[in-house]
Amino acid sequence: MALPALNFDHAIYGTGDLEATRKAAQKLGFVVTPRGRHKGWGTGNYCVMFEQDYLEFLGMVDPAGESNGLDKFLASGGDGLLAITFGITDSALVAEQLRGRGLNPHGPHALSRLLELPEGDIEPRFALTRLPPEEMPAINGFLVEHLTPELLRRPTWVRHPNAAVGIQSVTVAVENPEETARAYEKLVGISAVTPTDDTWAVHVGKQVILFVTADDAAGLYSDDGTARGLPTICGITLKSSDLDQTYAALKANKIPAERLPGGVIRVDREDAVGAVMDFVRA
């Protein structure tokens, strides 16, 4: 059976204070979309949109509503990167392909959110397909089909003062990087799962998920970011069209960014919603 066509869709942050996180994202130099509210759930979000992918900041807007696991995530260690999602374009076809490859998809399940625009709410709609945790391990992930993609992006939403243009990679600390990465071979193909020393990479579209040990995460980020336990998504790397502009935007907002060898600008987790945020040249 053919491999499903997948892309890296978005990374989701969990936050205990949605409005404070919106302000933090703006201080990092991002344009933040208007607030969204998930229909049927107690959660809402703000997003940072790029041309091909995006960041989602997820928090509670109705404490009496369904948290969909957000409460447990926050209780385990506070704000941070909660999940990684893959994009698809035909949920029914992908489900058939996944079953043909010995996987066990559930769905699609309908989801929509009310996006609060000045001229009135609009309703982007999605279809979510989930796999058992052992078939998409360590990232709390799912597959998403955008049913109304034209509603998600406006030109003013994808031009950011910090020059960020997209996601390059995410780093996930796990007990066994090889075992975790190889679990993705049925989903992305054997050739898309590659080792480098003790690090294992899963390529999804043009982006990469790096699975590392806690020790390697500590070496990469000065601390391993695993206070909530393993697995944990401990870092994200964003692409910048102009690193000087990125650095200037961060410094203008008094973000203690650091220039590292190899053309990396780093913001530590305390100033980046609970996960290290690196910027590299696009």
From TrEMBL:
Name this polypeptide is given: VOC family protein
Q: Which Gene3D superfamilies match?
A: 2,3-Dihydroxybiphenyl 1,2-Dioxygenase, domain 1
Residue span, VOC domain = 166-282
Q: Which domain of life is it from?
A: Bacteria
